Structures are given as C-alpha cells and as structure tokens.
Amino acid sequence: MKKGFTLIELLAVIIILGLVLLIVVPNVTKILNRTQTRLNTEQKAAVENAARQWGVSNLIYADGKITYNGEEKNYVTIDELQTSGFLEDKEIQDMTDREKLEGDTKVCITYKNNQFIYEFDGEC
C-alpha cells in the first residue's frame, strides 16, 4: 500500500487555504489602511504642534496682521520648522501614497478669537 495524499485531499486543503485567504486578506488590508490614516493624523498633529511652538517664539499680531521679523507672515514651511529646530530634520512622508512631503509644504497661520490657528497643508 502506497502512502500519500489523494487528489481529493489535496483539493480540500487548497480550498480551505483559499477560504482562509478570503477571510484574512480584507481584514489585514483594513488594518493597514487604518494604521496609515492614524499615522497621517499623528504626523499632521506633530507638524502643527511644531508650527505652534515656532509661532509662540516668533509671531506677533498687531494692527490686524501676523508678522515675523517685521514682515507679514501667513504660513510657515516644513523647511523653516526644521531649520529653526522646531521639527526633527528628517524626511516626512504622506503615508497614504508614500510620497515625500516637500520642504515648501506649508502650515497656514490665521488669527481668530485672540489666538493663532495652525492648519497643516491648508489653503494659504
């Protein structure tokens, strides 16, 4: 008598593996997408926080204008934040498309209700 698997047994194993993949792959994909979204949100918050700290040290609001070193200023760039030491000097990526964010990416600054408002990559 020969030892081994029959064709039916092999097909059953392949079908079971296929079913497991049908269940696992969509769930793993959802988890990865949620993680990328969370990373983008946390990264955006970190950049806005760095801009906020930079603004506390550098911005003045007077006569209806936001100024920096006597010049009107309504945004700060990632390069400026990194150069001034408020943001770690490393490559920043958009996690949804894995593209590098350029140094000229802006954090918009507005002044409302007696406070500065910082919006990462907003419409300046």
Would you tell me the structural class of the helices and strands?
alpha+beta
Question: Could you say which overall geometry the principal axes of the C-alpha atoms support?
Answer: rod-shaped
> What is the number of E strands?
8
State the major sheet. Answer: 3 strands, antiparallel
Q: What is the radius of gyration computed over CA atoms, rounded to a whole number of angstroms?
A: 26 Å
Molecular structure report:
By secondary structure, the chain is of the alpha+beta class. The chain is 47% helix and 23% strand. The protein contains two helices and eight strands; from the N terminus they run αββββαββββ. A three-stranded antiparallel β-sheet has the order 1-2-3, with no helix packed on it. A three-stranded antiparallel β-sheet has the order 4-7-8. The radius of gyration is 26 Å and the shape is rod-shaped. The model has no long low-confidence stretch (mean pLDDT 91).
What's the topology here?
Layout: H1 7-58, E1 60-62, E2 65-68, E3 71-72, E4 75-77, H2 78-83, E5 93-94, E6 99-100, E7 106-112, E8 115-120
Antiparallel strand pairs: 1-2, 2-3, 4-7, 5-6, 7-8
Keywords:
alpha+beta, three-stranded antiparallel sheet, 124 residues
Outline of the structure:
By secondary structure, the protein is α+β, with helices and mostly antiparallel strands. It has helices at 7-58, 78-83; strands spanning 60-62, 65-68, 71-72, 75-77, 93-94, 99-100, 106-112, 115-120. It has one domain (8-120).
